[in-house]
Design goal:
This protein is α+β, with helices and mostly antiparallel strands and 105 residues long.
Length: 105
């Protein structure tokens, strides 16, 4: 029984759900990554993921301010209406959230 060595995948396995999620508009907007020594503009979050190897959901969350940075890189949307729309949504959601009781009720 001879087995071939496992292939190293260049791209992850993508199913229908992942294709649907990756096709959302928010992942196809231009972003800027601020690395230690330079800032680089990418055409989309998915392109930034392909080039840098940082997961696209981490880049998105860093762009909207949900997390401070992704893999030690500061990310932001290239300024425009899309940036304001997504940023405002998450800021409003955070401000309107109040928890009256503890975690046990």
């Amino acid at each position: 029984m001879s087995q071939k060595p496992a292939e190293i995948r260049k791209f992850p396995i993508v199913n229908k759900g992942a294709i649907k999620k990756r096709s959302q508009k928010k992942y196809h907007l231009p972003v800027i990554g601020h690395f230690a020594d330079r800032s680089v503009e990418f055409k989309s979050i998915l392109e930034a993921e392909r080039v840098t190897g940082i997961n696209y959901t981490l880049i998105f969350e860093a762009c909207i301010g949900k997390i401070y940075r992704a893999k030690n890189v500061h990310w932001e949307y290239k300024k425009g209406n899309h940036y304001i729309k997504y940023k405002a949504y998450y800021i409003n959601a955070q401000e309107s959230y109040t928890r009256l009781g503890g975690f046990n009720g």
